[in-house]
Amino acid sequence: MRTGDEALLTDFYQLTMLQAYFDEGLHGRAVFELFVRSLPPERGFLLLAGIEQALDYLENLRFGADELAWLHDSGRFPPDFVDRLAGFRFTGDVHAMREGSVFFANEPVLRVEAPIAEAQLVESRLINLVHYATLVASKAARCRLAAPGRLLVDFGLRRAHGAEAGLLAARAAWLAGFDGSATVLAGQRYGIPVYGTMAHSYIEAHAREADAFARFAASQPDNLTLLIDTYDTEEGARRVVELAPELARHGTRIRALRLDSGDLLDHARRVRRILDDGGLPDVHLFASGNLDEGRIAALLAADAPIDGFGVGTSLTTSADVPCIDAVYKLQAYDGRPRRKRSEGKATWPGAKQVWRLGGSAGDLVALHDEAPPTDAVPLLQPVMRAGRRLAPAEPLAALRAHAAEELARLPAALRTLDRTDSTELWPVRISPALQALAAELDREAH
Fold first, then answer.
1. Torsion angle, alpha carbons of 283, 248, 195, 207, to 10
2. Which domains does the chain carry?
3. Which Gene3D superfamilies match (predicted)?
């Protein structure tokens, strides 16, 4: 999305509520918080991403001439309301967790304080940005935990659910520990290392597989990875061994061979033996083809001689967990705490802070003005005031380092791929004061 194209990228009811707030003169200051109600069974934790895009959206939000004209021509809104939107800007304050932070259910990761119309309008896009990036970052983190020390590359653009999704997935995956992406724009925009090999079509375009290898080597002498499973994987490896001495005479070194189909464990063992026997022990093996963290972990548990993995569809679609219950709820209005009491969807009222306790003692969710626990770290930090960022965007490399530190701090049981109930391993407690406030509001309601 281009900056300035996002004001109408929202749910229609956000605009109808915006008009109602204007008509009613309801301009009090509201507190909304974005959080996840519960973790799916397949996730023992989540890794936060998408905050940078959320702040960029808030800082640049405005209705352009084309959008105003469309709203006017739609006949759904009175002209005076549409005219007021011409000057609409987000003027609120924002607190957020740092991208790359590990978090759990019922912990606010983003807090918006603004006039209620402003805070309401941004709901849909904020959830959209933070939800998707967090899904992919959490999936990528599991891949990294499954393959410590191995090369991991995002191959997911072609099956991502849209162009923006593919680009944001590349960013989220690199933040979570991937080594690079095949998406070229991710390199240009975010400075992410870009990786690429070759396609089966290139091999098929030549009459002989050996000719395809030789021609590609001549074109890419400094970064040569050959795809060897177009016809017969082991035979392809033997052709590489035959070609290697001639390439070496011209100063070309084969960096890696890519396996993309079949029984990857069996093929990797056979190809590794062919390369070693052929005097090419330094040529790496790179595998792709419907991989996820489970398949990667199984391959490495079986001592597969694979040095790197390309992960595509399962990453950019977060195939096993394609959505999480991320919500954005009103917690206070006009100086008074608010609490939703819907069955199964009740919220904790008031503006809150999340405190990370020492060691693996877990987290504490408390009212934002409660005294801090001893030796605890506040996770929500001020990042925007009066609609403007308080600091430039943090370098992505720093967020990536933060994510690595966060994953390393997790208890060993949470760093496995097993289904894990994090409530025992990393408890999230609700402060007594917050519980008392919720009970008080419930009594008032009755």
1. -100
2. 12-132+325-346+378-418 (3.20.140.10), 147-316 (3.20.20.70)
3. Aldolase class I (3.20.20.70), nicotinate phosphoribosyltransferase (3.20.140.10)
